[in-house]
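Exam review. A common question shows you a sequence with its structure tokens and asks you to describe the fold in words. Practice with the pair below. Do the first one on your own.
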Amino acid sequence: MVDTAPFLLVTDLDNTLIGGNPEYLEEFNQVWRHCQKSGSKLVYNTGRSIESFKEHISEGTIVPDAFIGGVGTKIHTFQDQDVSFDSGIPDARWEAYLCAGGWDKEKIVEMVSKGREPYKDRIFVEEAGESPFKYTLISVEKILLEELRDNLKRELDAASLEAQIIS
């Protein structure tokens, strides 16, 4: 195997390292262990919470240097990749940054509740609870979510609330 200069690898998980072909995971692990020797760093970036990730990882999945979850609302670092996924340390600086950014979950929840009132039987709130900076709506009717998203964007802008809508 060729030696490499250190690099940062940021990868999604679903159908990449989770839910894919187990042979690919074994091959990735072999290549990655070689890359680690040169000081390369591995980051998993996913919409999943770290709890959901832990539930779905397969045995043999490499512990990363960092985990970005909840669509960027949570960051965990791992000091020792030989330990376990339970050894992740939440990044307090990232949480402080998000708190200082003007996020007001109470106002957001109030606005979303009001906005989804006409659709309350067809658009549901996902009660993930892992991140105070994430609020997820789900529906099988994509057109309703798009309509609600557009309405909420206008209302959030008018209220000068710091929020991003990711669809």
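Now try the second one, then compare your answer with the model answer below.
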Amino acid sequence: MTITKASQKDIPAVMELEKSFPGTPWKNPSSFQKPDHSLFVSKSEGKTNGYILVHHKPDSNHIVKMMVDPNSRKSGIGKSLVNHVKSDTPLSLNVRASNTGAINFYNSIGFKKSAEHAGYYKNGESAHEMLMEDAAPTVAIGNGAMDNAPVVSKEQQKKIVTKGKLKSFKEFCEELDTESLQ
């Protein structure tokens, strides 16, 4: 799987994915091409299987829309797309209050409900606003065998350095709950 910034030639595949959206799909390709927005696509074997659209604000980023092909869900694509757009600024999104699957997914990757907006959607349904305050990208550390290296959160990264001195990987792992690294 690869994730890249979308080009003009990716828009038809994104619009095709929109047709599988259970709500009201966007029908205007220009919705994905605003100057303060970034669109990234996920592809496997040359086929677009997901996208994420992010609105860049001065002090945060907001996920406007994310879609994964229904046949490719629960394969890590959504998590990879979110990880791809993480930065040092908070990351937010809105999700339908009735979409428990999406809410559970977002909770599992670090988002927390920060507000509720009554009547947010055209049909009158409420939206949960969700926020990931510590949205810094996670990094893999290890001894060169990166395929087996743990993924380390920003909080855990702070534990690697003690009094300005970098701990050895072994010392670091001994201090952490190894279950949290898997």
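Model answer, second protein: The chain is about 20% helix and 30% strand. The CA atoms of residues 68 and 165 lie 42 Å apart. Full marks require stating both points clearly.
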